Amino acid sequence: MDIRQLEYFLGVASELHFSKAAEKLYVAQPALSRQIQQLENELDVVLFERDKRNVKLTPAGEYLQNEASRILSQLEYVRLRTQLIHRGEEGDLRIAHPGSAVFSVLPTLLSALKLYFPKIRGVLSEVLENKLFESLHNYQVDVGFVREPIPDKYLNSRLIFEECFSLVVPPNHPLTKENFTGLRQVQNESFILPPRHAGSTYHDILLRMCEREGFLPNIIHESNFGTTILKLVEHNLGVSLLPSSYRISSPVNVRFIDLDQLPERTQLSMVWRKDDTNPILHNFLDTASSVDFRYY
């Protein structure tokens, strides 16, 4: 039994007329009759009751009609999905990211991906930067977003986004955008910042912003996760310095004061394995190239 025999059988079962079925299948009637006879011989059953005027399905024929229709529909589904996966238009993409990416590039990028490739599913995980590179090398993720790409002969990187920092203060803090003149105004405040080991260059940037104002921050709490820092600030446990994109859709009640007058900027880059030929990844990278990630 093969696919063609099943297609011929379903054609006859639908028409219950060999001549009409042969015409629709673009095959000679004698050839169609031989195929049906071979199928019956292989299965050792009678599929059609035939006389000079009528063709009727037997109970075995009715059963095979239902099953053959299901099988051929499933095969067509498999064929289409196989082509989509081959073209990188369907499947999972494992994405590692810092928390800030959820407030900046990821929603925009995933919206564009859905528009162009609606059957690609993003599997997201918030990963510390030092663990992200390890996850890439261990093939646990396909692409990552990092603040500080490191030279690595096995990885490619691409800068996609740059933004300024903001001073984040509790909602009842006396400082506002209107009366803010410089970071020296918070030199006596308690700070909540990421630890140095989570990204030394990033941490050093934050310290440099304070040092230029003549002080070192009094760090009383540390966290690798921006959403945790925001929650602590909301509860009056200190102030912080975070990428300004955190204020977009921030679920907590805090006040952001932009520091765009300062020269320091933080960047976000994509990193992925150089030898990765996954077509889904490359469709994702192409989509990222088409998106304008300017921050407003």
UniProtKB/TrEMBL annotation:
Q: Does this UniProt record's set of keywords contain DNA-binding?
A: yes
Is Transit peptide there in the keyword field?
A: no
Instruction: Tell me what this protein is called.
Output: LysR substrate-binding domain-containing protein
Q: Which UniProt keywords apply?
A: DNA-binding, Transcription, Transcription regulation
Domain HTH lysR-type: residue ranges: 1-58
Q: Note the PROSITE patterns from the entry.
A: HTH_LYSR
Entry's family note: Belongs to the LysR transcriptional regulatory family.
Kindly name one Pfam family recorded for this protein.
HTH_1
